[in-house]
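pasting for the record
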Amino acid sequence: MLDEITITLRDKWNVKHDVFIDVGHSSLSEKWLIALNKLLKNNLHLEKNYHWIGFQERHLPLLCDKINDSLNAIKSFDWTSVGLSPYEITEHFTIDNTITKGDVGPDLPGAYVEHDMFNHLHRHFENLQGQAGNISPYYKKVNKEIRWHIRQLNLLCHEFESCALSFRKLHYAPEWLQYTQLFCFLNTPTFNLDPTTDFDAFGLDTLIRKLGDVTMGIDKSVGKSHWEVFNDEGDVTLDETTTTALTSQWQGSGDFDIRWSKTPTDEDVTTFEKVDKFVAWLKRNGLDPEDPSLTLGHPRVASVNLLKSFNTEDSKTIQNVINTHLDVYQIKTSDAKLILDYRWNDKNYKDIQVNLLH
Protein backbone atom coordinates (compact mmCIF):
# COMPACT_ATOMS: atom_id res chain seq x y z
CA MET A 1 0.00 0.00 0.00
CA LEU A 2 1.04 3.61 -0.55
CA ASP A 3 0.35 4.73 3.02
CA GLU A 4 -1.72 4.10 6.14
CA ILE A 5 -4.05 6.89 7.26
CA THR A 6 -5.32 7.06 10.84
CA ILE A 7 -8.67 8.73 11.49
CA THR A 8 -9.23 9.37 15.20
CA LEU A 9 -12.91 9.51 16.13
CA ARG A 10 -14.25 10.64 19.50
CA ASP A 11 -17.51 10.40 21.39
CA LYS A 12 -19.37 13.05 23.40
CA TRP A 13 -17.06 12.45 26.37
CA ASN A 14 -13.86 12.68 24.24
CA VAL A 15 -13.22 8.92 24.36
CA LYS A 16 -11.30 8.19 21.15
CA HIS A 17 -11.29 5.36 18.62
CA ASP A 18 -8.80 4.96 15.75
CA VAL A 19 -9.80 3.88 12.24
CA PHE A 20 -6.99 2.70 9.96
CA ILE A 21 -7.13 3.21 6.18
CA ASP A 22 -4.92 1.49 3.61
CA VAL A 23 -4.26 3.63 0.51
CA GLY A 24 -4.30 1.63 -2.71
CA HIS A 25 -1.88 1.64 -5.63
CA SER A 26 -3.30 3.57 -8.59
CA SER A 27 -2.70 6.81 -10.44
CA LEU A 28 -5.71 8.43 -8.81
CA SER A 29 -4.82 7.11 -5.33
CA GLU A 30 -1.39 8.71 -5.59
CA LYS A 31 -2.80 12.07 -6.71
CA TRP A 32 -5.49 11.96 -4.04
CA LEU A 33 -2.99 11.20 -1.26
CA ILE A 34 -0.76 14.11 -2.35
CA ALA A 35 -3.82 16.41 -2.33
CA LEU A 36 -4.95 15.14 1.09
CA ASN A 37 -1.51 15.76 2.59
CA LYS A 38 -1.66 19.34 1.33
CA LEU A 39 -5.07 19.82 2.99
CA LEU A 40 -3.71 18.56 6.29
CA LYS A 41 -0.49 20.59 6.14
CA ASN A 42 -2.43 23.75 5.28
CA ASN A 43 -4.81 23.22 8.23
CA LEU A 44 -7.97 23.36 6.14
CA HIS A 45 -11.35 23.26 7.88
CA LEU A 46 -13.41 20.06 7.79
CA GLU A 47 -17.12 20.79 7.22
CA LYS A 48 -18.48 18.88 10.19
CA ASN A 49 -21.99 20.13 9.50
CA TYR A 50 -21.87 18.07 6.28
CA HIS A 51 -20.12 14.96 7.47
CA TRP A 52 -22.24 12.12 8.88
CA ILE A 53 -24.68 11.41 6.06
CA GLY A 54 -27.55 9.03 6.78
CA PHE A 55 -26.91 9.09 10.51
CA GLN A 56 -29.76 10.38 12.64
CA GLU A 57 -27.87 12.83 14.86
CA ARG A 58 -28.89 15.63 12.48
CA HIS A 59 -32.50 14.52 12.10
CA LEU A 60 -35.10 15.59 9.53
CA PRO A 61 -36.91 18.30 11.57
CA LEU A 62 -33.53 19.88 12.39
CA LEU A 63 -32.58 19.88 8.70
CA CYS A 64 -35.91 21.52 7.76
CA ASP A 65 -35.20 24.28 10.28
CA LYS A 66 -31.71 24.83 8.90
CA ILE A 67 -32.98 24.97 5.30
CA ASN A 68 -35.55 27.59 6.32
CA ASP A 69 -32.93 29.60 8.22
CA SER A 70 -30.77 29.83 5.09
CA LEU A 71 -33.69 30.56 2.77
CA ASN A 72 -34.92 33.34 5.07
CA ALA A 73 -31.45 34.88 5.31
CA ILE A 74 -31.12 34.92 1.51
CA LYS A 75 -34.64 36.23 1.00
CA SER A 76 -34.21 38.98 3.59
CA PHE A 77 -30.91 40.29 2.24
CA ASP A 78 -31.08 43.74 0.62
CA TRP A 79 -30.06 42.72 -2.90
CA THR A 80 -30.61 46.23 -4.24
CA SER A 81 -27.72 47.40 -2.03
CA VAL A 82 -25.36 45.41 -4.30
CA GLY A 83 -27.13 46.40 -7.51
CA LEU A 84 -29.19 43.25 -8.00
CA SER A 85 -32.90 42.54 -8.17
CA PRO A 86 -34.45 40.92 -5.08
CA TYR A 87 -34.28 37.13 -5.22
CA GLU A 88 -37.71 35.55 -4.78
CA ILE A 89 -38.14 32.52 -2.52
CA THR A 90 -41.60 31.22 -1.63
CA GLU A 91 -40.86 27.78 -0.19
CA HIS A 92 -41.01 26.90 3.50
CA PHE A 93 -39.85 23.41 4.45
CA THR A 94 -41.72 21.22 6.94
CA ILE A 95 -41.89 17.48 7.49
CA ASP A 96 -45.42 17.55 6.04
CA ASN A 97 -44.32 18.92 2.66
CA THR A 98 -40.97 17.15 2.36
CA ILE A 99 -41.85 13.53 3.23
CA THR A 100 -44.68 11.50 1.69
CA LYS A 101 -47.44 10.24 3.98
CA GLY A 102 -48.56 6.65 4.41
CA ASP A 103 -47.29 3.33 5.65
CA VAL A 104 -43.55 2.70 5.38
CA GLY A 105 -42.15 -0.43 3.80
CA PRO A 106 -41.25 -2.10 0.48
CA ASP A 107 -43.64 -0.88 -2.22
CA LEU A 108 -45.51 1.24 0.35
CA PRO A 109 -45.93 5.01 -0.16
CA GLY A 110 -44.70 6.50 3.11
CA ALA A 111 -41.48 8.35 3.99
CA TYR A 112 -40.25 9.09 0.49
CA VAL A 113 -38.72 12.49 -0.27
CA GLU A 114 -41.00 14.98 -2.04
CA HIS A 115 -38.53 15.63 -4.84
CA ASP A 116 -40.35 18.69 -6.21
CA MET A 117 -39.47 20.59 -3.04
CA PHE A 118 -35.82 19.67 -3.30
CA ASN A 119 -35.69 20.34 -7.04
CA HIS A 120 -36.77 23.90 -6.18
CA LEU A 121 -34.16 24.06 -3.41
CA HIS A 122 -31.35 22.86 -5.67
CA ARG A 123 -32.47 25.21 -8.44
CA HIS A 124 -32.22 28.13 -5.97
CA PHE A 125 -28.67 27.03 -5.21
CA GLU A 126 -27.78 26.76 -8.91
CA ASN A 127 -29.24 30.20 -9.62
CA LEU A 128 -27.52 31.83 -6.68
CA GLN A 129 -24.09 30.24 -6.97
CA GLY A 130 -23.88 29.46 -10.69
CA GLN A 131 -21.64 26.93 -12.39
CA ALA A 132 -17.93 26.25 -12.08
CA GLY A 133 -16.30 28.88 -14.30
CA ASN A 134 -19.50 30.90 -14.42
CA ILE A 135 -20.23 32.00 -10.86
CA SER A 136 -23.47 33.92 -10.38
CA PRO A 137 -23.37 37.67 -9.65
CA TYR A 138 -25.55 36.90 -6.62
CA TYR A 139 -22.67 34.91 -5.15
CA LYS A 140 -19.93 37.28 -6.31
CA LYS A 141 -21.46 40.46 -4.89
CA VAL A 142 -22.86 39.25 -1.60
CA ASN A 143 -21.14 39.17 1.80
CA LYS A 144 -19.56 36.05 3.32
CA GLU A 145 -22.52 35.25 5.56
CA ILE A 146 -24.98 35.07 2.66
CA ARG A 147 -22.43 33.06 0.66
CA TRP A 148 -22.39 30.61 3.54
CA HIS A 149 -26.20 30.35 3.42
CA ILE A 150 -26.13 29.82 -0.36
CA ARG A 151 -23.69 26.93 0.10
CA GLN A 152 -25.96 25.43 2.75
CA LEU A 153 -28.81 25.08 0.27
CA ASN A 154 -26.82 22.50 -1.68
CA LEU A 155 -25.36 20.70 1.32
CA LEU A 156 -28.66 20.51 3.18
CA CYS A 157 -30.45 19.30 0.04
CA HIS A 158 -28.12 16.30 -0.23
CA GLU A 159 -28.07 15.71 3.52
CA PHE A 160 -31.84 15.72 3.84
CA GLU A 161 -32.32 13.26 0.97
CA SER A 162 -29.76 10.87 2.47
CA CYS A 163 -31.16 11.21 5.97
CA ALA A 164 -34.66 10.52 4.66
CA LEU A 165 -33.48 7.35 2.94
CA SER A 166 -31.95 6.07 6.18
CA PHE A 167 -35.08 7.09 8.12
CA ARG A 168 -37.18 5.02 5.73
CA LYS A 169 -34.86 2.00 5.88
CA LEU A 170 -34.92 2.19 9.68
CA HIS A 171 -38.59 1.20 9.59
CA TYR A 172 -38.36 -1.98 7.52
CA ALA A 173 -34.74 -2.86 6.69
CA PRO A 174 -32.43 -1.45 9.41
CA GLU A 175 -29.59 -3.74 8.35
CA TRP A 176 -29.43 -1.77 5.07
CA LEU A 177 -29.18 1.70 6.58
CA GLN A 178 -27.17 3.96 4.25
CA TYR A 179 -24.24 5.40 6.20
CA THR A 180 -21.56 7.56 4.58
CA GLN A 181 -18.92 9.74 6.24
CA LEU A 182 -18.01 12.72 4.05
CA PHE A 183 -14.68 14.50 4.45
CA CYS A 184 -15.28 17.83 2.70
CA PHE A 185 -12.88 20.67 3.45
CA LEU A 186 -13.61 24.37 3.01
CA ASN A 187 -11.79 25.99 0.08
CA THR A 188 -10.42 22.65 -1.13
CA PRO A 189 -8.02 23.05 -4.08
CA THR A 190 -8.66 20.76 -7.05
CA PHE A 191 -6.60 19.06 -9.72
CA ASN A 192 -7.62 18.00 -13.22
CA LEU A 193 -8.15 14.30 -13.86
CA ASP A 194 -6.15 12.60 -16.60
CA PRO A 195 -8.59 10.62 -18.78
CA THR A 196 -5.87 8.16 -19.79
CA THR A 197 -4.92 7.15 -16.25
CA ASP A 198 -7.56 8.34 -13.77
CA PHE A 199 -10.85 7.35 -15.40
CA ASP A 200 -10.02 3.69 -14.70
CA ALA A 201 -11.06 4.34 -11.09
CA PHE A 202 -14.64 5.01 -12.24
CA GLY A 203 -17.19 2.72 -13.86
CA LEU A 204 -20.46 0.90 -13.29
CA ASP A 205 -18.78 -1.53 -10.89
CA THR A 206 -18.04 1.35 -8.49
CA LEU A 207 -21.72 2.32 -8.14
CA ILE A 208 -22.14 -0.39 -5.50
CA ARG A 209 -19.85 0.46 -2.62
CA LYS A 210 -18.58 -1.98 -0.02
CA LEU A 211 -18.31 -1.56 3.75
CA GLY A 212 -15.09 0.37 4.37
CA ASP A 213 -14.66 1.68 0.83
CA VAL A 214 -12.84 5.02 0.71
CA THR A 215 -13.71 6.99 -2.41
CA MET A 216 -12.50 10.36 -3.63
CA GLY A 217 -15.25 12.90 -3.05
CA ILE A 218 -16.89 14.28 -6.17
CA ASP A 219 -17.55 17.97 -6.67
CA LYS A 220 -20.35 18.59 -4.16
CA SER A 221 -20.36 22.36 -4.49
CA VAL A 222 -21.72 22.56 -8.02
CA GLY A 223 -23.36 19.90 -10.13
CA LYS A 224 -25.03 16.49 -9.97
CA SER A 225 -23.73 13.23 -11.34
CA HIS A 226 -25.80 11.04 -13.68
CA TRP A 227 -26.36 8.59 -10.80
CA GLU A 228 -27.62 11.38 -8.52
CA VAL A 229 -30.03 12.66 -11.15
CA PHE A 230 -31.36 9.13 -11.76
CA ASN A 231 -31.85 8.56 -8.01
CA ASP A 232 -33.43 11.96 -7.45
CA GLU A 233 -35.64 12.15 -10.54
CA GLY A 234 -36.33 8.55 -11.53
CA ASP A 235 -36.93 7.43 -15.09
CA VAL A 236 -37.12 10.86 -16.76
CA THR A 237 -35.67 12.41 -19.89
CA LEU A 238 -32.54 14.46 -19.36
CA ASP A 239 -33.62 18.03 -19.92
CA GLU A 240 -34.02 21.31 -18.08
CA THR A 241 -36.80 19.89 -15.90
CA THR A 242 -34.27 17.84 -13.92
CA THR A 243 -31.29 20.09 -13.25
CA THR A 244 -29.17 22.71 -14.95
CA ALA A 245 -26.03 21.26 -13.39
CA LEU A 246 -25.65 17.67 -14.64
CA THR A 247 -21.89 17.19 -14.85
CA SER A 248 -19.30 14.49 -15.30
CA GLN A 249 -16.30 14.62 -12.98
CA TRP A 250 -13.24 16.20 -14.52
CA GLN A 251 -11.56 17.38 -11.33
CA GLY A 252 -10.32 15.67 -8.20
CA SER A 253 -9.33 16.81 -4.70
CA GLY A 254 -8.18 15.57 -1.32
CA ASP A 255 -11.81 15.25 -0.17
CA PHE A 256 -13.00 11.70 0.44
CA ASP A 257 -15.90 9.56 1.65
CA ILE A 258 -15.99 6.44 3.82
CA ARG A 259 -18.82 3.96 3.34
CA TRP A 260 -20.15 2.47 6.58
CA SER A 261 -23.14 0.57 5.12
CA LYS A 262 -23.38 -3.19 4.85
CA THR A 263 -21.87 -4.55 1.64
CA PRO A 264 -24.65 -5.57 -0.79
CA THR A 265 -24.71 -9.27 -1.66
CA ASP A 266 -26.30 -11.25 -4.48
CA GLU A 267 -29.30 -11.71 -2.19
CA ASP A 268 -29.84 -7.95 -2.13
CA VAL A 269 -31.62 -8.03 -5.46
CA THR A 270 -32.98 -4.48 -5.21
CA THR A 271 -29.53 -2.85 -5.33
CA PHE A 272 -28.42 -4.70 -8.43
CA GLU A 273 -31.79 -4.18 -10.13
CA LYS A 274 -31.37 -0.43 -9.56
CA VAL A 275 -28.02 -0.46 -11.36
CA ASP A 276 -29.61 -2.37 -14.25
CA LYS A 277 -32.37 0.24 -14.45
CA PHE A 278 -29.75 3.00 -14.40
CA VAL A 279 -27.92 1.39 -17.32
CA ALA A 280 -31.17 1.18 -19.28
CA TRP A 281 -31.92 4.82 -18.43
CA LEU A 282 -28.53 5.96 -19.73
CA LYS A 283 -29.09 4.12 -22.99
CA ARG A 284 -32.56 5.63 -23.44
CA ASN A 285 -30.96 9.05 -23.06
CA GLY A 286 -28.40 8.29 -25.75
CA LEU A 287 -25.48 7.69 -23.38
CA ASP A 288 -23.04 4.77 -23.43
CA PRO A 289 -22.71 3.23 -19.91
CA GLU A 290 -19.19 2.10 -20.82
CA ASP A 291 -18.04 5.58 -21.85
CA PRO A 292 -15.26 6.47 -19.40
CA SER A 293 -15.80 10.20 -19.96
CA LEU A 294 -19.11 9.95 -18.06
CA THR A 295 -17.05 9.19 -14.92
CA LEU A 296 -19.82 7.06 -13.47
CA GLY A 297 -19.68 5.80 -9.92
CA HIS A 298 -17.50 6.45 -6.91
CA PRO A 299 -13.73 6.32 -7.58
CA ARG A 300 -12.16 4.04 -4.98
CA VAL A 301 -8.76 5.26 -3.69
CA ALA A 302 -8.37 3.36 -0.39
CA SER A 303 -10.13 1.03 2.05
CA VAL A 304 -10.62 0.77 5.80
CA ASN A 305 -8.67 -2.03 7.46
CA LEU A 306 -11.74 -3.34 9.28
CA LEU A 307 -10.02 -6.00 11.36
CA LYS A 308 -7.31 -3.65 12.58
CA SER A 309 -9.83 -0.87 13.28
CA PHE A 310 -12.65 -2.89 14.88
CA ASN A 311 -11.39 -6.48 15.40
CA THR A 312 -14.30 -7.60 13.23
CA GLU A 313 -15.80 -7.26 9.76
CA ASP A 314 -19.38 -7.47 11.04
CA SER A 315 -21.25 -4.41 9.78
CA LYS A 316 -23.61 -4.11 12.75
CA THR A 317 -20.79 -4.19 15.31
CA ILE A 318 -18.82 -1.63 13.32
CA GLN A 319 -21.84 0.67 12.93
CA ASN A 320 -22.47 0.53 16.67
CA VAL A 321 -18.93 1.80 17.31
CA ILE A 322 -19.26 4.55 14.69
CA ASN A 323 -22.65 5.66 16.01
CA THR A 324 -21.14 6.35 19.43
CA HIS A 325 -18.10 8.23 18.01
CA LEU A 326 -19.67 10.83 15.74
CA ASP A 327 -16.85 13.35 15.67
CA VAL A 328 -13.45 13.40 13.95
CA TYR A 329 -10.65 14.61 16.23
CA GLN A 330 -7.60 13.96 14.07
CA ILE A 331 -6.45 12.83 10.62
CA LYS A 332 -2.90 11.52 10.30
CA THR A 333 -0.80 10.21 7.40
CA SER A 334 2.90 9.36 7.31
CA ASP A 335 3.57 12.92 6.05
CA ALA A 336 1.03 15.14 7.84
CA LYS A 337 -1.30 15.45 10.81
CA LEU A 338 -4.30 17.70 11.41
CA ILE A 339 -6.15 18.09 14.73
CA LEU A 340 -9.81 19.06 14.34
CA ASP A 341 -10.82 20.09 17.85
CA TYR A 342 -14.27 21.50 17.11
CA ARG A 343 -17.80 20.13 16.66
CA TRP A 344 -20.66 21.02 14.31
CA ASN A 345 -22.93 21.99 17.21
CA ASP A 346 -20.48 24.43 18.83
CA LYS A 347 -22.21 27.79 19.35
CA ASN A 348 -19.63 29.66 17.27
CA TYR A 349 -19.33 27.03 14.53
CA LYS A 350 -21.20 28.97 11.84
CA ASP A 351 -19.11 32.09 12.52
CA ILE A 352 -15.91 30.06 12.17
CA GLN A 353 -17.02 28.80 8.76
CA VAL A 354 -18.21 32.21 7.55
CA ASN A 355 -14.86 33.78 8.39
CA LEU A 356 -13.00 31.06 6.49
CA LEU A 357 -15.00 31.37 3.25
CA HIS A 358 -13.26 32.89 0.25
